[in-house]
Amino acid sequence: MTSPSFSAQNAHIILINWNSLADTRRCLRALRELSDTPGRIWIVDNGSTDGSADAIAAWLASCTLPITLIRTGENLGFGGGCNVGIRHALDAGATALWILNNDAIVHKDALNALLAELQSNAQVGAVGSVIYDLDHPQKVLVWGGGHVLSWLGLAHHAKRTLPAAQLDYLTGASLLLRREALEQIGLFDDDQFFMYWEDTDLCYRLRAQGWQLAVAADSHIWHQHSSSLGHDHPLKDYYVTNSAGHFLSRYARFPRLSWTLGSLVRISKRLRAGQRNNIRAIWEARKGLAYSEQVPTPVPLPQTERRRTVRVAIEATTMQGRPAGIGHFSEELINVLIQTPAVKLTYFTTTGYSDQPPHPVGLHISQRGAWKKKIPLGREVQFYLQGWQLERLKKRWRPEIILGMNYVLPKGRSPQVLVVHDLSHMDMPEAHPPGRVLFLNRHLRPALERANAVVTISHFTKGELLKHFPELAGRIHVLYPGISERFSAPVGEQARRALRVALDGDPRPYFLFLSTLEPRKNMERLLLAYEGLTDRIKRQYPLVLVGQMGWQESRFAPILERMQARGEIVLLGYLRDELLPALLERAVALIYPSLYEGFGLPPVEAMASGCPVLAGNSTAIPEVCGDAVLYCDPLSIESIRDGMIRLAEDQALRHQLIEKGKAQAAQYHWQRAGEQMLGILREVAGRE
């Protein structure tokens, strides 16, 4: 028997939604990251009563995936809802059907791995995935499926690698089915199974007809365990007991005895936990009685309630002292958020909390927090103090969302939104102090696991996050930073005079480097490239370095000192933000051969100011700068030097880059970034 060819294009996905908009939307966002787009996604709304079907329909209007929403008008149960989607998929010509829980997060290669396993053996009728715990992403919940102890009336998930022949069933949380197998044995038995055991029954029927089960070891899924009803909800015990009775009546040798033993095991667990309602639910299921407790039905919030202000607590330590890149990002974003009545902001740092930012925008005070670099475990102490201040704030103000602008956040029960700017500490650890690398390696993963949404500043960084933390698919939002309007506004004469003073009256244009002086910014190669220029170019265009001295400056200090001694370089240190447009106006070009960038704000600020840019062709820079800069190989001193020569001698090239740069920089607006962040905060708070 020859197996037909399978591809993502002829595979259809079946999702069931029941009062779970957030889960379904997150799952769909994760499906957007699949390596290959499926032929069709069928969302079956199983009679939701919370308005989620309408919200999904509105969201799909801007979604690029091939999705069809089907409304059943009533709750048909898991098997019944799946059958509706399966029939539509079969009618549409699907050759493989992927049953997927709507609270699942898929790895980008999950579907292709399932299809490859189905393709490899024509006798395989169903393929399962390796399912991990979404709350503990490295913990295996289910290795494809599990075993049925029919004499005891219980099923047990496998949690380690097993030959598929030893599995009695595959879980319906992620189950790929072959069309021919379904056409032979039929669909889920929705007459007997409303919830639970329907996937086990289907697998038993497959095996009875000679079909084999398989597990795709490379198909990884992260699943929010028992999110439909909750692990301990009495209604879950009711349906599990009811469905177990139907299953055992078909397949157990002594069905009533097995059903009784299984029920007693469940009752004993609930008895030890003091869960009397669960025990009553099990008894009602055994007696064939209707469930007596009121089934919780989500009720949509009134519009006035849905529009009320969201209270957000912001971790604002990076805004203290002289703000660097993350501090500027935080300031500008907050400036937009405070203009809308839709959010109410408060701030906490290591030293306290307040309804005002740590300092007024534009006012630079002496650097705080330097102690964390000078005492053992300083970052850990800082992190502990932030958590302590957050707890104090929560007692007084009760924030609904905690917003972290700088990679990590202390634990908290409130939903969290976390901003991750790049992963250079993982991809390029040698460019960071060891203490910072150890701190982030210890705290970043737990912070990401707790985060309801993760915001990053480029698609490059999003890709890096998914490479290292694939379980984040569906929770990552790309938010491009904006550019301050001062960079595109005319430069004032006062700023020009202040710059002349800083330059000791030197009237020459210059090559400019603008950022923290540290190895990640490729300082050593930049200095060597400039040092190798002809004396004529160096006399015409000195190299001006602006920025705080960073880590491991000793690596390039000898080069810096000899160039300073020859008068080839001007070291200005940290300059006020107000002077940066004037600084860029005078520059012949910004030289930015950085080795690693999550976004790269200085090149965009330069483009907005009408300053040509030479930038490294790596990480996020090509995504952000497009064709509006001159690129170099940041690992090649010769390439950097050649780029500087071209910019020094080719006036037409400079004019071309200036025009392209202004158009490229015009795409980045803080107002747009703030509105996007507001949308993320409202979504996490359930205020859509």
TrEMBL record:
Glycosyltransferase 2-like domain segment(s): 13-185
GO biological process terms held by the UniProt record: lipopolysaccharide biosynthetic process
SUPFAM superfamilies linked to this entry: Nucleotide-diphospho-sugar transferases, UDP-Glycosyltransferase/glycogen phosphorylase
Keyword Transferase (UniProt): yes
Membrane-spanning ranges: none
Residues annotated as domain Glycosyltransferase subfamily 4-like N-terminal: 353-484
Keyword annotations from UniProtKB, A to Z: Transferase
Gene3D superfamilies with a match to the protein in the record: Glycogen Phosphorylase B, Spore Coat Polysaccharide Biosynthesis Protein SpsA, Chain A
Family annotation (InterPro entries): Glyco_trans_1, Glyco_trans_2-like, Glyco_trans_4-like_N, Nucleotide-diphossugar_trans
GO molecular function terms attached to this record: glycosyltransferase activity
Domain spans labelled Glycosyl transferase family: 507-663
Protein name: Glycosyl transferase family 1
